[in-house]
Amino acid sequence: MSEPTGEAADANVSVHEGITYADREAGEMELDLYLPDEERPPLVVYVHGGGWIAETRDNVPDPERYAAEWGCAIASVSYRLAEVPDDAGPEIQGMYDPTNPTPRGAFPAHFVDVKAAIRWLRATAAEYGYDAERIAAWGSSAGGHLALLAGVVKDVMDLGETFDGELTKSVAPDTSGAVQAVVSWYGLTDFTFAADHAPGIPSLLLGGPASDHPKRFEQASPLTHVSADSPPTLLMHGRADEVVAVEHSRRFFDSLDEAGVNAVFYELHDRNHVWAERIEDIESERVAMDLLATEPTPSQSVYSATHVDEGETPEPLLDTALPAGPAAIEQFLARTIE
């Protein structure tokens, strides 16, 4: 086990920074691990946002605090980001930071890395002391898409024939990459829908417009892969989101419900992307949880799908009177992976 390399804000959390989980041609892929002083806690794998082209694993809401408060280990993972060509539009160029040290690669490299991180974390659980059988994925925006995809596609090799030649399992290949629960903040779920409403980044990510690559757009969409075996899911999305339309989470919730999967969907009134009130106020995920906890708390509508076999007692994923924010996520994790 590596020695802690950072001083946790909470004395009961040890921090291991810059752990290499994969060595790619483009460079080393790393993660940061936050371990609470608990015996075999469950693990939450956090996947950052940034439009698949920007940000780093530092773009995570206060992991030391929530590792301590929730009693969960938290791993914030890097994944290869998409290359940005010189002729990309101003919106994409505005997000791109050429000094970002994260290795670059073409989709499905993003998904391959997230699955590799999950397998590596499960394979090394005994070394660090968390429970390999209780793992949730949590992601925001582009990371929400990748977390949802990791939930509904159990094995990276199952993503689809369209990507067969681009899928690899070089990291802990005999270990499961499945997760037992998913939390998505304003994650994209349907690239075919996105292609009609925000074509720029999906086309960049998937190698061209949907008209040229319909199968890639379909297979990269978490919505395509929902089944009765999908894990319980907590969705949170702003109704006023101008970056990833709330319709993405609406469709995904409905699909989970139809498949008989337990899910909860928080739709926050008057909140934009990253929980900002206006698009010009959007900041990073580092402060996003604080925006949910402001007073007064955001108005919300909550939809719950609870499925039981005949004769069984319904067990909801959480008490829907809870406001969106850390308490709701904590209770969801407690009822799914604890």
What does this structure look like?
This protein is of the alpha/beta class. The chain has a single domain (13-336), classed as Alpha/Beta hydrolase fold, catalytic domain (Rossmann fold, 3-Layer(aba) Sandwich), CATH 3.40.50.1820. The protein is built from eleven helices and nine strands. Strands 1-2-4-3-5-6-7-8-9 form a nine-stranded mixed beta sheet, sandwiched between helices. β7, α9 and β8 (263-268) form a beta-alpha-beta unit. α3 (109-123) packs across α5 (142-152). The longest helix has 15 residues, at 109-123. It is globular and about 55 Å long. The two termini are 24 Å apart. Residues 1-9 have low confidence and may be disordered.
Core attributes:
338 residues, Rossmann fold, nine-stranded mixed sheet, 11 helices, 18% strand, globular
Overall 3D shape: globular
- Low-pLDDT sequence parts: 1-9
Mean pLDDT: 92
Q: C-alpha Rg, in Å?
A: 19 Å
Within the CATH hierarchy, at the fold level, what is the topology? Rossmann fold
CATH superfamily: Alpha/Beta hydrolase fold, catalytic domain
Question: What is the element string, with H for helices and E for strands?
Answer: EEEHEHHHEHEHHHEHEHEH
GO molecular function, one term: hydrolase activity
Protein name: Esterase/lipase-like protein
Keywords: Hydrolase
Domain BD-FAE-like: 31-83, 106-255
